[in-house]
Amino acid sequence: TISILCLAHKPSTTSQYQSVWSLFLNFLADRGLTSLDMTEVSCVGIVCDFLAYHSSLGKQYRTIASYRSALRHPILFTCGVDIRSEASDLFMRGLFNFHPPVRSRPMPLWSLASLLDFLCGPTFEPLESASFQALVRKT
User: Fold this and answer.
1) Residues in CB range of 96: below 8 A, 6 or more apart
2) Triad 90, 98, 54: Cα angle to 5°
3) Which of 67, 65, 60 is nearest to 99 (CA)?
4) 50-96 pLDDT per residue, tens
5) Which of 33, 37, 48, 76 lies at a CB distance of 3.0 to 4.6 Å from 28, suitable for a disulfide?
6) 41 confidence band (pLDDT: 50, 70, 90)
7) What is the pLDDT of residues 5-36, one digit of tens each?
8) Other CB atoms within 10 A of residue 20 CB
9) Cα gap 23→122, rounded to integer Å
10) For 103-114, what is the mean pLDDT?
């Protein structure tokens, strides 16, 4: 049963989740806590503290969200607490607003027709009189 349950995730995901669990256990140990201290009342708060700590280290929102996902099932199975609660959802929303994800810049707009006109322009044509650098740029 356990081997089939372990197939729920790809090996790379399982490895990543195990490393997050290890980070979480170290976080608990640094604060003098154990998994036995994870009561239903305190569990979500401890997890949110863990996520806030890693956010303060400069980890991006998406990384923090993956940490929460990685912790969900181990905490559910060991402590009987589902950390996907309204409180943790509000925490994640606040974290998103506090440190929004970096968005990539949109691709610049260009037109194939404009590019072909540029390559047929005086810098590149006639080929016989174009500089070597212009020919390299054209290719």
Assistant:
1) 61
2) 85
3) 60
4) 999 999 999 999 999 999 999 998 888 878 888 898 999 999 999 99
5) 33
6) low
7) 778 878 888 888 899 999 999 999 998 887 77
8) 19
9) 61
10) 80
What pLDDT does residue 14 have?
81
Distance CA 19, CA 25 (A): 10
CA atoms within 13 A on the CB side of 85: 16
> Do 38 and 75 form a contact (C-beta atoms < 8 A)?
yes
Are 47 and 68 contacting, i.e. CB atoms less than 8 angstroms apart? Answer: yes
Torsion angle of C-alpha atoms 123, 124, 128, 132, degrees rounded to 10 = 80
- Strand, helix or coil for residue 57: coil
Instruction: In whole angstroms, give the CA distance from residue 96 to residue 104.
Output: 16
**pTM reported for the whole predicted model:** 0.66
Among all chains, which residue has been given the structure tokens 């997050």? 20
